[in-house]
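Re: [ENG-882] Designed sequences occasionally contain unexpected residues at chain ends

Forwarding the minimal case from QA. Structure tokens:
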């Protein structure tokens, strides 16, 4: 048995941004645009383009452009106030994962009393309808524009927490690769490796099913075939479009079958040290999956094939190990740092992060069960 959740409508491909005006008009008359200062500061960039489409459709707007990477509870409070003061009636996020997560958090805080972390962290704790949310995505990575996950940093406790609910699902997602071509190589690499981590973790998760398997495996193939191209030449629209599809497919997969220890651990690196999510995932991914390998070598062998490895004539463990080397090679080729120590992580951070990693909502989906010492060892291996 499986259920399958997705936004109501998903637009993917060149030129699909033009859908935002008419679609927004279907859901409200005044939008709060949720974005960051970098995107809102680009003349003629994605935010300006969205504004033009809204003007044409007769939808007015206010803007909150204070979203930080690894969005914080404070960002949600700021955005909520503007939404109320400006009498908005729909949310429209523009950016990568952070604005989408922040917009989901704003929607939750507008409609639910109490504290987001204390009262709603976890799975399916939301009880009320949220304002309609439309997401315009500008990076191929997080998949937040198609998921029910709202990931937020608790600034007092310095941990990331996840609010998972079908009520967070956007009404509309737009992935137009023309908004992604100007992205720098480092951001392209980090977000692309985040998408790969979604696909790999989801493919071997305990809740995987035939639909999520198909999405995950095709996503892995597309990323393996196109991420190097998108990093090497950012204007390669074909590679950008393939990465947009890969990101959406991986997002739809993990939206329904979950993730694992890589994300559970990476969230602690984001919460404690504010490390970029995709980089943290990319560094951890080969180490965690090498540890997971014994649980399902057949599926790891399929990952290896999807990444272009030849497994002919190999025993299943040897074939499975090729998935790990293929991940490491891709990570190196796109310029991901080799270890956590080079990113400023200290040995003294590892034990506290291991404790909170096991409490993260993604830990329960990992196919191999570990204890605190196991997680410490995985962090050490990634140092
Ligand atoms: Fe992620």
């Amino acid at each position: 048995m499986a259920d399958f959740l997705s936004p109501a409508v998903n637009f993917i491909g060149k030129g699909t941004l033009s859908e935002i005006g008419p679609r927004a008009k279907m859901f409200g008359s005044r939008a709060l645009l949720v974005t960051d200062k970098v995107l809102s500061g680009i003349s003629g960039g994605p935010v300006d383009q969205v504004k033009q489409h809204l003007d044409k459709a007769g939808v007015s707007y206010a803007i909150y452009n204070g979203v930080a990477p690894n969005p914080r509870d404070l960002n949600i409070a700021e955005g909520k106030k503007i939404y109320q003061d400006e009498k908005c009636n729909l949310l429209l996020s523009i950016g990568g994962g952070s604005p989408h997560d922040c917009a989901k958090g704003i929607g939750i805080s507008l409609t639910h009393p109490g504290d987001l972390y204390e009262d709603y962290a976890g799975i399916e704790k939301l009880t009320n309808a949220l304002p309609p949310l439309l997401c315009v995505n500008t990076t191929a990575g997080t998949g937040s524009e198609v998921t029910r996950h709202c990931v937020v940093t608790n600034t007092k406790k310095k941990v990331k927490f996840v609010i998972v609910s079908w009520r967070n699902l956007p009404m509309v997602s737009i992935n137009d690769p023309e908004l992604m071509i100007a992205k720098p190589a480092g951001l392209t690499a980090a977000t692309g490796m985040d998408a790969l981590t979604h696909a790999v973790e989801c493919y071997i998760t305990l809740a995987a099913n035939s639909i999520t398997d198909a999405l995950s495996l095709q996503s892995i193939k597309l990323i393996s075939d196109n991420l190097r191209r998108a990093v090497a030449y950012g204007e390669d629209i074909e590679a950008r479009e393939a990465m947009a599809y890969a990101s959406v497919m991986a997002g739809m997969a993990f939206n329904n079958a979950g993730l694992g220890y890589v994300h559970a651990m990476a969230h602690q690196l984001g919460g404690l040290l504010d490390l970029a999510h995709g980089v943290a995932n990319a560094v951890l991914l080969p180490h965690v999956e090498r540890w997971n390998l014994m649980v399902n070598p057949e599926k790891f062998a399929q990952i290896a094939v999807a990444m272009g490895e030849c497994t002919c004539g190999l025993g299943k463990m040897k074939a499975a190990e090729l998935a790990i080397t293929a991940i490491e090679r891709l990570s190196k080729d796109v310029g991901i740092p080799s270890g956590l120590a080079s990113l400023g992580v200290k040995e003294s951070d590892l034990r506290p992060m291991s404790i909170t990693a096991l409490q993260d909502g993604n830990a329960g989906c990992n196919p191999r069960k570990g204890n605190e010492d196991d997680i410490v060892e995985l962090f050490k291996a990634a140092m």
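QA comment: On inspection the terminal residues look reasonable. Residues 142, 194, 198, 263, 277, 281 surround fe (ii) ion (CB under 6 Å). Proposing we downgrade this to a documentation issue.
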